[in-house]
Every structure is written in structure tokens, then in C-alpha cells.
Amino acid sequence: MTQATGTPNTDVPAPIAMLQMLSGFWISKAIYAVAKLGIADYLQDRPKTAEELAAITETHPLSLYRLLRALASVGIFAEDDNHNFSLTPLAATLQTDVLGSLRFFAISELGTVHSLGWNNLLYSLRTGGIAFDDAAGMNIWEYYAQHLEDGKSFDRAMTNVTAVVVAAILSSYDFSEFQNIVDIGGGQGSLITEILKANPKLKGIIFDLPQVIEDTKLRLQTEDIADRVTVLSGSFFESVPVGGDAYLLKHIIHDWDEEKATTILKNCHQAMPQHSKLLLFEIVIAPGNEPSFGKLLDLNMLVMAGGRERTEEEYRVLLQAAGFQLTQIIPTSSPLSIIEAVKV
């Protein structure tokens, strides 16, 4: 395999390829550590030695050197002959708040919270239950509500992901036909912000939990579309705002099992005018054995939230159960597809 991606390398004996794949656990934990320490941010101006970086981050110089050397061997950072470390394209994605940043995604997905679930994977396999809930004694959303720092890291992680995929969404779908879009579970508002910037006549509503939208309001104050956005709080298990002509759900439905996903969709159906459209931004699982980010993410949903990634047919059946007809699935240049549906 290529060590940086986890893709099997057919040019080496199977035991060697398996050893390389097993090292993926070490790589992911190393990525978490440098993301948490903010190492990539400290290399923006110039390359630095491990000793310099250790002084900045209050870490042990030799241990930090060994960490950076290991990551440089898989293309994350580069070490020169003088033992200076510099950014590579992969390392640059671990910077904060730059285009393509995945720093907070790495912190959220590879840290102690997700370890609770993944260390208990066998529970899900044996029972079909949610491994995280069994280990933590509560579901992931309750956990984030009680552990605010972890919850904020998750919100920023979702903002990271949105920033990575939003250009692909905008280039694949024409939002200009709408007047008022409603972003259900819209988080910090990254998706709706970019859609409104690209469509000056559009207005929008961001709908999310009360503990989420306080940060959303602060973030929107820095955006020039703030006067076109209304921020509302509530639970999509109870109701959603009425009156939009497009209802957007990005990476929402995959968090939930069929029963809860159907409840969310039925609440959207009830709030939507007859002419409006439902747009889901999700990974659609394809058949075959090709490498698939979606199939791995599906395991994360099993372990952490009890949700799942779905095939086209599974989305068709789910939407029908909530009173929708699937009209088209539009692939994008990102892992996400745009699943369009209308009321029937």
C-alpha cells in the first residue's frame, strides 16, 4: 500500500502489505498529536528544527523529533539534511483556518472521544448496538453537550469538512432558482454562507441546537451576508422552520438509523411547501471493492452514532417512507453527492 493513503500495494508480499496497513493506526495517532499541538501553524513562516518546535509547544525535543520524522516518512512534513522540518501539501492541511484545513477534523475524529467508540467496536459487531453509547454511558450528542470543548472541536471539524466540499457542491448544483433556503443542522453556517455569497438574491435560515447557534451568530457577524440570514434554534426531531423553497441537510441523515432519519425527513416534509425541494449532501455507497472513504465512514457511523452511509436504493426507500420521491443524484468532485427529492 501507499503508507499515506492506506491503499493496498500489490507489489509487495501480502504480509508486508498488511504490516503497512496496520501501521495506519500509528499514523492516525501521530496526526492527532501534531494537529492538537498546532505544529503546522508554527511552520508557516519558515522550516524549524524539532528543538525550536519543542520550545514553542512545551514538548520533549527528542520525542517530538521522532514523531515528526515518522510523519515525514509518509509525506506529512519534510526533513532536510539539517533536520529542519517544513510543510508539505499534506502537512498544510493541518494548519488552522486555511483553505483545505482539516486540523479540527483530525482533532475531533482521531482523539479520545472517538477512541471510546472504536476501542469498543466488537460491542457493535456482537450486538448491533452503538459502541460509543455502551462505553460512555450516553450518546455522542449528549456527550458533546456535557463536554463543551469536545463539542466545539466537533463543530469546527464539520466547518473544516464543509469548506473542503463546498466548492464541489456549488459547481454541481444551481441554487439560483430558489429564494429562501433552510439549512437543517447547519452548524456554524459555512455551507449557507458560501451559497448566499454565490447567489446575491438568496436568503437563508440556519437551524440547529441552542448550544450550537450561539457560536453561529458570532461567526456570522464577520460575514457580509449576515443581513440575509436568520438563525433559529430547535430540534429537528420535533419540527423544522417552515416556508423555505429548498431544505438542505449536509451530513445529517447519515448520523441516524432508519427510524430517526425518517422522523427528521417527515418533519421536513411537513414544513415544506409543495413546490420546494429537499437536498441531501451525503456519500452514496457504490457497489464493488474499490477503495471507498464512504465505506470506512460507514463504520464510524456504526461505532459512534448508530447511523450509516447508504446506497442509492436505500436512500430511495428511506425518502419514500417520509413522503418524498428521489428525483436525481448528482455526483460532485468531492466524496459527497447531492440527493434531490420532492414531495409526493
CATH homologous superfamily of the largest domain - what is it? Vaccinia Virus protein VP39
- Overall spatial form: globular
Radius of gyration: 21 Å
Please state how the strands of the largest beta sheet are arranged side by side: 6-5-4-7-8-12-11
- CATH domain class of the largest domain: Alpha Beta
Rounded to the nearest angstrom, the distance between the terminal CA atoms is 47 Å
Portion of residues in beta strands equals: 15-25%
Kindly give the count of domains: 2
User: Which structural class do you get from the secondary structure elements?
Assistant: alpha/beta
> What is the strand tally?
12
Ranges where pLDDT stays below 50 over 5 or more residues in a row are: 1-5
Q: Tell me about the largest β-sheet.
A: 7 strands, mixed
Order of helices and strands: HHEHHEEHHHHHHHEHEHEEHEEHEHEE
Average pLDDT confidence is: 94
Provide a brief overview of the structure.
The protein is α/β, with parallel strands linked by helices. Helices cover 47% and strands 15% of the residues. The protein has two domains: 82 residues, Winged helix-like DNA-binding domain superfamily/Winged helix DNA-binding domain (Arc Repressor Mutant, subunit A), CATH 1.10.10.10; 179 residues, Rossmann fold.
